[in-house]
Design a protein that fits this description.
The chain is of the alpha+beta class. It has 6 helices and 6 strands, in the order H-E-H-H-E-E-E-H-E-E-H-H. The chain has a single domain, classed as Arc Repressor Mutant, subunit A (Orthogonal Bundle). The strands form 2 sheets. Strands 1, 2, 3 and 4 form a 4-stranded antiparallel beta sheet that branches. Strands 5-6 form a two-stranded antiparallel sheet. The protein is globular.
């Protein structure tokens, strides 16, 4: 099993999925849990793939993206399906466009996520991704609950 906590894995998998959807937008994309685990450089073990699948399911169920259908995992190593035809919703797109301050600059969350997923150093990436995912969820909650 991975040396990462479940929350660290959630943050990393959510960041990678949201970054993929932001880069593809407005086109649709396919999110495959096992591919995301491998792209994150995490050991491709069943518990990690399950955490990734459940992270994607949570993002979908909470309305960050829609999907045309969830595929069956008949060709995957652990039997987890993917999210085919995934696309950011208005909620997901709004979350990606939230302006945040990191250090001395203010930029959209989506830009920062894509940058972090594509190659930031491991030491800084986990901290930044955790902060950004927290801001995304917080911004969505603020929108729902009001100021």
């Amino acid at each position: 099993m991975s040396s990462h906590t479940k929350m660290e894995l959630f943050n990393r998998f959510a960041a990678r999925a949201l970054a993929q959807l932001r880069e593809a937008f407005p086109n649709r994309s396919t999110l495959l849990p096992e591919q995301i685990v491998e792209e994150e450089g995490i050991d491709l073990e069943r518990p990690n793939a399950l955490i990734c699948y459940d992270t994607l399911a949570w993002l979908h169920d909470e309305g960050y993206f829609t999907t045309q259908f969830r595929s069956l995992g008949t060709k995957s190593k652990f039997g987890f399906g993917g999210f085919v035809g995934a696309q950011l919703t208005d909620k997901g797109l709004a979350a990606m466009n939230v302006e945040v301050s990191l250090g001395d600059e203010t930029r959209p969350v989506g830009e920062i996520l894509v940058e972090q997923v594509k190659g930031a150093a491991e030491e800084t990436r986990s901290a930044v991704i955790g902060e950004i995912i927290g801001k995304i969820i917080g911004a969505a909650a603020k929108t729902i609950l009001g100021p």
